[in-house]
Each structure stands twice: as C-alpha cells, then as structure tokens.
Design goal:
This protein is α+β, with helices and mostly antiparallel strands. Helices cover about 45% and strands about 30% of the residues. The chain has a single domain, classed as 2-Layer Sandwich (TATA-Binding Protein), CATH 3.30.310. The chain has a five-stranded antiparallel beta sheet with strand order 1-5-4-3-2. It holds the Pfam family DUF302.
Length: about 130
C-alpha cells in the first residue's frame, strides 16, 4: 500500500465504481471539479491502448478556502485527486491522495489540521464507495 494514497478495490466495473465514488464524495462535502479520462487521452494523443483509468479532481470548498487563507500558493496542490483504475476481472481500484503526506512538503503548520480533516473525509468516501 502506498503511503501517499488510500486505496480500495471494488468488485465492479469503472462506470459503476465512478458513480459510487462520486456519491460518496458528495456525502463527504466534495464536488468533482475536474475529470481526466487517461485511457481516452492516451489513445487520442499517443494512439496507446491502456486499461480504464480516470482521475477525478475533488474539492471541499470550505476546506479549500481555509487552506488558501493559510497558504495562498496551496492551489498548486488542489483539487484532491481520486483515481479509478480498472484492474481486471471487472474490478476497479479506487485511490485518493493523502493530503497529510502531500502537505508535508509545504512546511506550513496552519495546514496540518485541514489536511488531516480532508484525509479523513477522503478515506471515508473511498471506504463507503
């Protein structure tokens, strides 16, 4: 298990997993601001065949606002990425960034509590999906 992400594998395809993840994120106060279909992008740009892979950029507006007030350039690390990756046999791995790990590089104590809160919310969303 990586230390920079919280992961879970679901016994369902990527489309169903995405629906479940979006609902779980919403329950935790996140909206999805960005969506990148890596599979489609690599096919279109490089003519490379890959498995299903999507990145959802999730944002919790109140926490993002607090983080921006504590560190104006924290926007370089926002939104929080959630990955959905087909792993075969109709299963999908879901992974969410651990903001505590990524924010450690910033060295701003004002972000510690916010990062922990968002880490916990993302973990609950991944576990609930």
């Amino acid at each position: 298990m990586p230390t920079f992400a919280h992961t879970r594998t679901l016994d369902t395809d990527l489309a169903d997993a995405e629906e479940r993840v979006r609902a779980a994120l919403q329950d935790e106060g996140f909206g999805v601001l960005t969506e990148i279909d890596i599979q489609a992008t690599l096919k279109a740009k490089l003519d490379v065949e890959t498995g299903p892979y999507k990145i959802l950029g999730a944002c919790n507006p109140p926490a993002a606002h607090r983080a921006l007030e504590a560190e104006p350039l924290i926007g370089t690390m926002l939104p929080c990425n959630v990955v959905l990756r087909g792993v075969g046999d109709g299963r999908t791995e879901v992974a969410a960034i651990d903001p505590v790990a990524s924010m450690a590089a910033v060295e701003n104590d004002g972000l510690d509590e916010i990062a922990a809160e968002i880490r916990d919310r993302l973990r609950r969303a991944v576990d609930a999906a």
